[in-house]
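User: I'm writing a tutorial on reading structure tokens. Could you give me a worked example: one chain, its sequence, then its tokens, then a sentence or two explaining what the tokens reveal?
Assistant: Sure. Here is the example chain.
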Amino acid sequence: MFKKITLIILIYIFIHNKAFSNINRDRILNYLESFSSMSSKFIQINNNGDILSGKIFVSRPGKFRIEYEQIPLL
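And here are its predicted structure tokens:
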């Protein structure tokens, strides 16, 4: 899943490059629009050095959910 997210970010960057042809841009946009949902694991490190991990789920239209694996007790 990390590869898909990285690919999407790189494609987004290249889409805004004028050297990219409209044909390639349209093919990429069609590919990205074919996704209805995706998920990925993540690791979050705050300023105190605390580490949390979990999953993020993204679904169209405009829905997302974050699930932490471990939430430390306060």
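What the tokens reveal: The mean pLDDT is 81. The first helix runs from residue 2 to 15.
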